[in-house]
Amino acid sequence: MINILSKSSTKPQLPEDGVLRVYSMRFCPFSQRVHLILDAKKIPHHKIYIDLIDKPEWYKDYSPLGKVPALQLTDVKDQPTLVESMIIAEFLDEQYPELRLFPSDPLHKAQDKILIERFAPVVNAVYPVLTCNANAPKDALTNFETALDAFEQELAKRGTPYFAGQTIGIVDYMIWPWFERFPSLKLTTEHKYELDAKRFGLLLKWRDLVAQDEAVRKTALDAQLHADFQGSKRLGKPQYDIAFKA
Amino acid sequence: MINILSKSSTKPQLPEDGVLRVYSMRFCPFSQRVHLILDAKKIPHHKIYIDLIDKPEWYKDYSPLGKVPALQLTDVKDQPTLVESMIIAEFLDEQYPELRLFPSDPLHKAQDKILIERFAPVVNAVYPVLTCNANAPKDALTNFETALDAFEQELAKRGTPYFAGQTIGIVDYMIWPWFERFPSLKLTTEHKYELDAKRFGLLLKWRDLVAQDEAVRKTALDAQLHADFQGSKRLGKPQYDIAFKA
Is A106 at the interface with chain B, CB within 8 A? Predict the structure, then answer.
């Protein structure tokens, strides 16, 4: 039984075992980024799920702006909490360097971070459609595809199966959560939207490859669950728990 | 004579001397961040100023989304360009480590990056007032002060003259450009707005201290110039060049 902590909840009582604590929401793509890094690096952690509509009062003590994901370091004085998925990802990569996900060279690291930043226009364009917003701009999917072209081109330019090269890396993990959600568009849009197999040929091959990754499989939810969650959220009653009933 | 390059311009002809090239706009606070790092670290660089209203056609070759600041590395194959002020700052700190501005410890580095991220709500709240937008929300300055409280509290918590400690560091430089601009509010708002000396006592002491820093003085423009620029920009004719006439 998974508890999703809401306003009336009390602070979770967890053992003082020095194990990381992750505050997240199971359908939040930014939270998934952090889970992917933790799972890829096999870093032990406790999971605490937050009701984002009806946030616990005590949560502000950990994440002052109420944001998820948040990572609490219980083996450090004052048990500080980190927020912002990219900052957490880079912290984890430096703190747990056994499996390096960021390039070690400063230039390539900067270029990968810029590429991840360039995914924001993709997300911003598709977000209203992905969340079943009835007022989504008519050209939302057109703008989405235009923004996504840069990633198809980048994969062609790099000439490798993953953005990171021959094995999976930081760009792959950081943009993955949205690729997991795109297939839900087929279920939620009237014209059953799918990515064009020709225009996004390399990205679709990449998607099939990444889908097989161990950490990706560990955090995966299927298109129907994503669609059902967005439907419930649109009605003002997000069903956070359907992720755990499956 | 400083050239501000606009649509009809041709690519600047610069010597192939391997020296960094910085594309920026003299009144852009994000550009100033990069100039502060370069000046603090005394890294030689060429300056190229871009007309942001009437951007050069060729600029997309360097910064695909037309953003400033951009840093071009001319001593690397294909002369790649980096964008995003924070990514550039971290790259420069790793590539030119003689004077370290970011904390070397992963946790403190992450905490400083989170603090810099928390400056975004300050900027977002004050931006319409700072840019003399007639439709600025009535509560803009109230929201600005509430967001700024976190920084006054953080300085108290850290108990040091600079956010970085006894000497200037990355948080100080990254948030400074806006503190340079706040005094222009006294000139542009009807009620001659100034930061409350009691509520923001530590921040105002910090401001006077940072204002004396060599890199800060090198990039500084006074309140009147900032006010004049914003006035010209509001009229649709940004006077980029007034920075150089002074």
Answer: yes
**What are the pLDDT digits (tens) for A45-69?**
999 999 999 999 999 999 989 999 9
- With cut-offs at 50, 70 and 90, classify the pLDDT of residue B2: confident
Q: What is the ipTM of this complex?
A: 0.95
Put simply, whether B84 touches A (Cβ < 8 Å) is yes
Average pLDDT estimate for B64-93: 96
Q: What is the pLDDT of residues A166-176, one digit of tens each?
A: 999 999 999 99
Sort out which chain A residues have CB atoms less than 8 A from B109's CB and list them: 91, 94
pLDDT at A246 over 70: no
**Chain B partners of A91 at a C-beta cutoff of 8 Å?**
106-107, 109-110
Domain ranges of chain A: 4-99, 106-234
- The nearest CA of chain A is from the CA of B195 a distance in Å of 23
Q: Which of B60, B76, B88, B94 to mutate to test the interface with A (most CBs of A within 10 A)?
A: B94
- Among the listed residues A117, A71, A136, A229, the one whose alpha carbon sits nearest the alpha carbon of residue B67: A117
Q: From A12, A84, A79, A10, select the one nearest A48 (Cα to Cα).
A: A12
CB within 8 Å of B87: residues ≥ 6 apart: A110, A113, A114, A117
| Cβ-defined contact of A94 to B80 (cutoff 8 Å) | no
CATH superfamily of A4-99: Glutaredoxin (3.40.30.10)
Residue B168: per-residue pLDDT: 98
Residues 6+ apart with CB under 8 A from B222: B246
Long-range contacts of B105-112 (CB under 8 A, 24+ apart): B106/A91, B106/A94, B106/A95, B107/A73, B107/A76, B107/A80, B107/A82, B107/A91, B107/A95, B109/A91, B109/A94, B110/A82, B110/A87, B110/A88, B110/A90, B110/A91, B111/A80, B111/A82, B112/B163, B112/B164, B112/B169, B112/B170, B112/B171
- What's the pLDDT score for residue A245? 78
CB–CB contact B76 A118 (8 Å):
no
CATH number of the A106-234 domain = 1.20.1050.10
Q: What is the mean pLDDT of residues A79-87?
A: 97
Taking an 8 Å cut-off on Cβ atoms, the answer to whether B114 and A82 are in contact is yes
Q: What is the pLDDT of residue B246?
A: 58
* Mutate: best of A91, A122, A157, A170, partner B, most B CBs <10 A: A91
Question: Is there a contact between B117 and A80 if contact means CB atoms under 8 Å apart?
Answer: no
